[in-house]
Request: fold
Amino acid sequence: MSLELLGPMLLTVIGAATPLLFAALGEVVTERSGVLNLGVEGLMLAGALSGFVTVVASGSHLLGLLAAAAAGAALALVFAVLTLTLMANQVATGLALTIFGVGLSALAGAGFVGMPVAALPKLAVPGLSDLPGLGPLIFGQDLLVYLSLALTVAVASFLSRNRSGLILRACGESDVAAHAIGYHVIRVRYIAVLFGGAMSGLGGAYLSLAATPMWIENMTAGRGWIALALVAFGSWRAWRICAGAYLFGGVTILQLYVQGSGRLHVPSQIMSMLPYLATMALLTVMASRPWRSRFDAPACLGKPFSPPA
Amino acid sequence: MLCNMNRRRFLQATAATGLVASQGIVSAWAAEPLKIGFVYVGPIGDYGWTHGHDTGRKAIEAHFGNKVKTTYVESVAEGPDAERVIRQLAQQGHGLIFTTSFGYMEQTLRVAKQFPKLKFEHATGYKTAENMSAYNSRFYEGRAVVGHIAGKLTKTGKIGYVASVPIPEVVMGINATALAARKVRPDAVVRVVWVHTWFDPAKEADAAKALIDQGVDIMTQHTDSPAPLQVAEGRGILGFGQASDMKTYAPKAQLSAMLDLWGDYYIGRVQAVLDGTWKSQAIWYGFKEKMLAMAPYGEAMPEALRQEADAIIAGTINGSYHAFTGPIKNQQGEVVVQDGARMSDDDLLKMNWYVEGVTA
Reply:
């Protein structure tokens, strides 16, 4: 492998990390409000299908992305009603949501298998995108890649510097206290769950419209679960989650490129383990003492809250 | 006494009822359609492997109509979970169960032993039992055609191969491709990237990008989604579809595709169960028995090459061509198969080494 390969490789890394980043950023907001939504995989599939179908029907990628976010949010609304209003168990409901999302998208999308669709266009900044080396890397991505990075900044500052973000965190750390001060815990959590759903939907749409512009059943292939793991390993912080997504995507892609070079003779099974090992190792180190945050999981994560009458 | 009488009458009555009832069940059973179960490793809409088996299932339904009733369970993970699914199908009274992935072999065998009256058909494995057959397609025959075309058309001499799970079946396919390619282009290499999954479109696509970025100009694959071929189309190189015609995803890039045709075999086996002539067997069919075919050639195929490819297929059918004919060297350059010798089916099914020209 040579240095010229670095550019194309990083392009592929971005493609692998972006869907994970969307879903994980959505989930971290949901979890910081105290709700554990294990339905990310199902939400991503709902987004992937809706985005794809909308682009097939309208030809507009922008509408497709809106539809994907809306579908993710709509399915998340079902989860919110069940767990927040009707007090159903969050773990069980989240798992059910995944199974439901997989089945529903497969059923509704059966007629769309085998249809071609144009990939989400890459932005082209005249002059800059053609710069050798870093040009296409920095200035030649599609809209969703920039959006995912902008949202990382936005979520990070929302959770740490914004008043509404602090209220959301209060609901996740101590629902009773937040309620006592006068915040509407359930309403905050509804909004957080809907945001998480919309983000998962966009993550799914990245797969069906940008990474592999096609619809195939179950095409997320477990990325929802990896996003969930990234939230925990990233100790519920947007920057660490972003780093985790890029690390995981980076090592996944690196090992594919190493295999493709045909030079390094390491059993491919070990290569396939690397992304998981590297992500676990780095994030475990980050979560250990010198860097340890004051708190890890939101204290009320997964606990139902019924406002005292 | 009276009490005894009553009891006797009661017993007679119940016996009679039981007899009638059991006869009723028997006649109802005879009229009942044969229930046939399918276990799939991927979703039926994968446009590849599972799609092919499901097309076979639909062929059964079309052929037998209401004499049979088919059920399928899709996206069943290989391993312990599969056993639960297979057993459930057995308990629900499926008389014939097709398990369509290599990784279901042990599980199928275990359930088959527990249900000796039911018939099982396992795809691409090598173990059989009194009531469990093994069936497979000689995909390597198609891979040889693919390898020949790839060897002729590659400019860089590097052929990409997105591979799924390292089992003999997949290794055999890689080797068949490399042997045929190097016959026409002695310096050609087959670059393999293992993704360790049968179905993950985004990862398959990334593997294809990793290969193309490193000089590969023909893409082949042994994974189930059209993603690698779609990447080939996007990058302006050529490639092959897998398991079904994937032309819609790659109208320019697809040179051909290996088509899995399970329908005829499935219909034959169902007929055998209905006739009561089903026997356990291990079959390995190919071009000759029409379990395998090549999709119509793409526009990028020159006329001369079409004829060469057709000649390989014809040679395979009449027995004059065999992909694994010696001399065959392993990666270390040692001659493993002598000049003119052909590898036996047993050796092929156990293949766990790469031929010269494969980098993996």
